[in-house]
Amino acid sequence: MKFSHHLVLDYKIIKPFEVIHYILIFDNFAALQEKIMAEEKKSLNFIEQIIEDDLATGGYQKEDLKFRFPPEPNGYLHIGHASSINLNFGLGLRYNAPVNLRFDDTNPIKEEKEFVDSIKRDVEWLGFKWAKECYASDYFQQLYDWAVEMIKNGDAYVDSQTSEAIANQKGTPTEPGKESPYRERSVEENLELFEAMKNGDTPEGAHVLRAKIDMTSSNMLMRDPIMYRCVHKAHHRTNDKWKIYPMYDWAHGESDFIESISHSFCTLEFLPHRELYNWFVNKVSKPEEFQPKQREFARRNLSHTIVSKRKLAQLVEKGLVESWDDPRMPTISGLRRRGYTPNSIRKFAESIGVGKRENIIDLSHLEFCAREDLNKTAPRVMGVLDPVKLVITNYEKEEEWLEAENNPEDENAGSRQVPFSKELYIEREDFKESANRKFFRLTLGKEVRLKNAYIIKGEDVVKDEEGNITEIHCTYDPLSKSGSGTEESKRKVKGTLHWVSIKHAVAAEVRLYDRLFTVEAPDADKEKDYLEFVNPNSLEVITGYVEPSLKEAKELEQFQFQRIGYFCVDQSSTSEKLVFNRTVTLRDSWAKKK
């Protein structure tokens, strides 16, 4: 029997040491392949399993597969959308199938071109490309024509009741609804009123178009749902052409049908809408035509934040954050500005997967994904955020330039030169006049290494009138230069400190961001306003000092400030005034608080 272990290992199901075992068990390679495929099938998430089952039953061919990401342009995308983007575009990559970016722009009251542009920018930044850029507004005429046909077929009617009356007649989950007194209007009257609505001849709220389904249905969404309402507001694409706009449930499934979407994935709250989705699609399609399938997955909520667009908009409107792209916001643009990488967000989405039950993902997991990615890619630099002056009393040179490695995780990252001089800044917390044996930083009478430089020993301090330390005096060993190869340079000391030369230091505004809310689920308490839980300490602005190599850093460039955390250059930064945003600390500080 011929056997290719390479093929087996490509599946990443069977480990190398198991290969011989499986050769002994299976008498032919086909049986082994079948075993591998069975193992791979077990690893599929339930969404992928749905697609595989559809392909296996013969109802779908691989060339039929087509997906879409359908945001409403009424706000900026947030981390929850990132999971949906990753799901839909990831399926497109897995099955080599097209994925449309379709804007469900059916509500001109809340939608703006600014949001359209931000959504396109976010999807592209995450690394995905759409097959077609589509809009529900592209289909307004077709949707209207289908609605007219439904009126003619007795499947829709114009209701002239108030919204309050319609809501009262809906009934309850345990009580049937009541039919509208306008339900049996003639086709002619319905057509005349519907055209008047379209032309703007009737005031807002005077009429709606409703589907005629079943007011006794156990699914309340099937109790004659509204298809159109009058809105006399200009649309961001169609301007004043339309005075009526389709409701989401009417436009969504029909848009999927028009675009030949095979699988329409929605979050779990749309599960009751599936019956209506199918009913509408059946009304406009023929039995032999390909029909889209709606399926649902659970939201993954993120701790210490909110993802409601309405509530995010309130944070902006009330001035609790600077803007939609404030680095404290869970929006994709906010995460980008804070310094998160596209890869870290994709990895986060992949790691939490898709499921059938809602749950809360701790924000620390997203931060972990950022650290893991930035550790591999971010250049190491030195910055001091709470400076105290360090004077090397026996250093006689004017200055010297030392070699510093850019990233030990990347052998191609190279190195840079950093200036060193007699007077330096170090972190105030890195020095104590006296300390126990577990304090591995600078203290009087003990030695530490200055990163990329020399071993120093604490000798004395200078204090102001209030007893605050203003200077630390130390001596250095001139033979202990890092990388020099001398015996002194190889001497082991227990601490290494970062520093910047005062003479060469560049002042920078540093924004230290923390969690936006103080509790895990700020909008879970129905008795309290979620705004009560806004963290008053979610932003601290300080002045730090960084090495001169950062003076020309560009917007969104990311760095690891050694021993402190990961930072990126804010969009407001200039060469005259550097501004850095803290992405994440080097370690999870909230784990300590817990």
Automatic annotation (TrEMBL):
Boundaries of every Glutamyl/glutaminyl-tRNA synthetase class Ib catalytic domain copy: 66-375
PROSITE patterns: AA_TRNA_LIGASE_I (PS00178)
Signal peptide: none
Domain tRNA synthetases class I (E and Q) anti-codon binding: 496-570
Entry's EC annotation: 6.1.1.18
Presence of keyword Cell cycle: no
Family classification: Belongs to the class-I aminoacyl-tRNA synthetase family.
Protein name: Glutamine--tRNA ligase
Native organism taxonomy: Bacteria, Pseudomonadati, Bacteroidota, Flavobacteriia, Flavobacteriales
